[in-house]
Amino acid sequence: MVIQYKCPDCGADMVFDSKTARLHCDSCGHSEVIEDYEAEDFQPFEQHFHTSAFEGGEARQYQCNSCGAILLTDKDTTATTCSFCGSPVVLGDRLAGVLAPSKVIPFAISRKEAEAAFKKWCHHGMFMPRGFKQADRIKKLTGMYVPFWLYDVQGHGEAFAHCTCIHTYDEGDVTVTKTSHFNVYRKVDARYSNIPADASEKMPDSLMDRLEPFDYSNMKEFNIPYLAGFISEKYNYTDKEMFPRIQQRVTDYMKDYILSSIAGYSSVHILNCDCNIGQRSAEYVLFPVWMVYYDYDHSEYTFAMNGQTGKIAGRPPLSKAKVIGSAAVVTLALFIICRIITVLMGGPVL
Ligand SMILES: [Zn+2]
Ligand SMILES: [Zn+2]
To answer: Which of 306, 315, 321, 336 would you label with 98, given CA atoms 20 to 30 Å apart?
Structure first.
């Protein structure tokens, strides 16, 4: 099931507009409210075949409604553009049933804004090589809706610790040290909401984690027109498969919280700290990410930008000369400060 939104006034393709959060026709300026579109329920579409072009995967055949060309898509694609006519295409059958996202955070940053923000970020990079900072080698800028699971979890934690409080006071000529010993116990029940984990195998977890936080107050009920004009993929891992990652993450939060509550002692010795994390629910959501592919010095660098907040993640190359130069400046400054202190304390003037 191929879905393409045509402008009722001029027939051109309509795409999601990040400024107005509406479907917009760039040809005549007509726009439509997305919430007015009925959420459609598609039956999975079984026409598919295998091809060597996608090693180990399964490609499917769709037909573009605009130009009639046959579209070959990667098995995970849910929204793309027709490679022949450039028309935005959404694959409705891959957004149905268990593959139907429940919520979406729409793009708030347009392609133009993303490009400008990335260039500005490069420009301000202190240790980036000069050639990289010019940011004129953006090879590709792709607006992607990345599949995430958003968890609601219940945590139960217990900690035992041995703590001491040491008081020292003078009694006549004698200094008395009094040590009080405490067996400390903490029991915490906590509920954590909206903990995200990206569910796409192609997206590096480390990049996606660093795009947080997303602002959930602008999360919308999912509707297909949000995807028009962007690339989107379905999840590769179920919420159950991703849960161990969440368990680890929430266990770390809880332990930090419990241990921070054992305060005010002279010494703290943690004997045991255990947490049990259980899943209450998980929602399938799509988050907006601009992927920036950048060529520099015969290598490709990949960056990700939060499509809602503009936060950028990725490792730029470092200029060795700048790093060594700034280390030299710091060393010289430390040397001068040491000399001044030596002279002030009566040392020799070199
Ligand atoms: Zn139009
Ligand atoms: Zn086409």
So the answer is: 306
* Cα–Cα distance, 291 to 119 (Å, whole number): 14
- Residues in the chain predicted with pLDDT less than 50, given as ranges, are 41-57
Determine the Cα–Cα distance for residues 305 and 313; give it in Å rounded to an integer: 6
The answer to whether 150 and 194 are in contact (CB under 8 A) is yes
Q: What residue ranges do the domains of the chain occupy?
A: 2-100, 111-217+232-318, 320-350
Q: Which ligand is nearest to the CA of 28?
A: 1
CA end-to-end span of the chain: 82
Q: Which H or E element spans position 72?
A: strand 70-73
pLDDT of residue 58: 58
DSSP letter assigned to residue 39: P
Contact 140, 125 (CB under 8 A): no
- CA 145 – CA 284 distance, rounded (Å): 12
Q: Residue 338 in contact with residue 345, Cβ under 8 Å?
A: no
- The confidence score (pLDDT) of residue 350 equals 60
Quick check: 333 and 342 in contact, CB under 8 A? Answer: no
pLDDT confidence of residue 203: 87
Q: Which ligand is nearest to the CA of 82?
A: 2
Number of H helices, E strands in the chain: 5, 16
72: its two tokens: 């070959």
How confident is the model at residue 52, as a pLDDT? 34
**Contact call for residues 300 and 139 (beta carbons, < 8 A):** yes
- Ligand 2 centre distance from Cα of residue 5 (Å): 13
Residues bordering ligand 2, an ion, CB closer than 5 Å? 64, 66-67, 69, 82, 84-85, 87
C-alpha–C-alpha distance, residues 285 and 100, integer Å: 9
**Protein residues placing their CB within 5 Å of the ion ligand 1:** 7, 9-10, 12, 25, 27-28, 30
Three-class SS of residue 182? strand
Cα of 12 from ligand 1 centre, angstroms:
5
**Ligand 2 centre from 42 Cα, in Å?**
22
pLDDT of residue 225: 94
Q: Give the ligand at the shortest distance from the Cα of 67.
A: 2
